[in-house]
Write a structure and sequence with these properties.
The protein is α/β, with parallel strands linked by helices. It is 50% helix and 13% strand. Helix 4 crosses helix 5 and helix 9 runs parallel beside helix 10. The model has no long low-confidence stretch (mean pLDDT 93). The site of dihydroflavine-adenine dinucleotide has 23 residues, from strand 4, helix 10 and strand 7.
Length: 319
């Protein structure tokens, strides 16, 4: 019932301005949001980052926002990233080979969905952020959004990597094309974050069945681990994590040649356990006031997340 009915409904709602108005207007929502979102300001994102660094975790920070159709908003997003990078440049780690600090970008927040020249505008804006990130010793990874953006996103990443060879990208195992993309992109110097995929996609382009998505994830992971790049294993799934450990052993990868990644507020104990094994674990930390789409995708991922949200309306909600 969750996978077949609630999940698609929540993912559809994640793009509905009407539902957004209702959900973001509820006082009780904000408390739940804080479980998944580090705050609204650069100072709050910086504080969350410093705390995670103290526990040995690496961090990737995302200024929330997506599907921008206003060029001024895209410019404002660039300004937020520049302020964030200023804040991050004060934290240690900017000279290590594997950079402890990273920012994640959504190209649709940088103008990719603008009706005219969206691709070129997003590239120009991402280039500005990469220039500032290079000066701050911070890596950049470009997030993956819905499948209609994949070709444009991979082309932007290729262009950025000509000037900033450390720019990473995300591949989504639920897309039918991704095994091929993993083969194409697993070369020397690449940084690929492999995730299952969080959007609502049609059967023509994406596996619909969870088992098929998991099987695809494992095939993609195998390709990346046997490749020459730097795989970033983004999952909370114990089955995927155990399989990853096997691939890492057989590819004889040392800890500096891959990393695990998980989302802020999810499986905190497991994040700490992985750090204690000597592996690099990077926590993806979202912040900003445009948290609606991100928050709804988290609710759509797991019945327990939805139940946690619904409980916030119950009798004990104010405690
Ligand atoms: P999935 O949701 O399939 O859950 C499998 C199992 O994992 C569960 O049965 C449970 O055992 C365990 N589990 C999951 N959540 C848990 C929890 N809260 N507590 C306890 N156990 C839990 N997507 C995208 O489309 N584009 C992107 O750019 C990114 N970027 C990204 C970065 C990072 C760092 C991560 C971790 C994820 C993303 N994603 C993403 C999201 C990703 O595509 C996916 O939606 C989520 O990670 C959920 O999938 P999982 O692999 O975690 O397992």
């Amino acid at each position: 019932m969750f996978t077949t009915t609630l999940r698609p409904a929540l993912l559809a709602a994640s793009r509905s301005p009407r539902v957004e108005k209702t959900v973001t207007g509820m006082a009780s929502t904000r408390k739940v949001v804080r479980r998944f979102v580090a705050g609204e300001t650069e100072a709050q994102a910086g504080a969350a980052t410093a705390a995670l660094r103290e526990s040995g975790r690496y961090v990737s920070i995302d200024y929330l926002g997506e599907d921008t159709t206003d060029i001024e908003r895209a410019r404002a997003t660039v300004s937020h990233y520049l302020t964030l990078l200023d804040t991050l440049s004060e934290l240690p780690g900017s000279t290590e080979a594997v950079r402890p600090l990273e920012v994640s970008l959504k190209l649709s927040a940088l103008g990719q969905s603008l009706p005219r020249d969206g691709h070129a505008i997003a590239l120009e804006n991402a280039h500005k952020i990469c220039t500032a990130a290079a000066a701050a010793g911070v890596w950049v990874t470009v997030d993956a959004e819905d499948h209609t953006t994949t070709d444009s996103t991979l082309a932007v990443v290729r262009a950025l990597r000509a000037d900033f060879p450390w720019v990473g990208t995300v591949l989504q195992a639920y897309l039918l094309r991704t095994e091929g993309d993993c083969r194409d992109l697993a070369g020397p110097g690449s940084r690929i974050r492999l995730c299952k995929g969080a959007y609502r996609e049609p059967a023509g382009v994406a596996y619909q069945d969870r088992d098929e998505v998991d099987a695809s994830y494992l095939r993609c992971l195998d390709i990346l681990m046997r490749g020459q790049g730097y795989p970033m294993v983004a999952t909370h799934d114990p089955v995927m994590l155990e399989a990853a450990a096997g691939y890492i052993r057989s590819a004889r990868r040392e800890p500096d040649r891959f990393e695990f990644q998980m989302l802020y507020g999810i499986r905190d104990e497991e994040q700490r356990r992985l750090v204690a094994t000597g592996a690099h674990l990077r926590t993806y930390v979202p912040y900003g006031d445009q948290w609606y789409g991100y928050f709804m995708r988290r609710l759509a991922e797991r019945p327990a997340n939805l139940a946690f949200f619904l409980r916030s309306f119950g009798p004990g909600a104010r405690r």
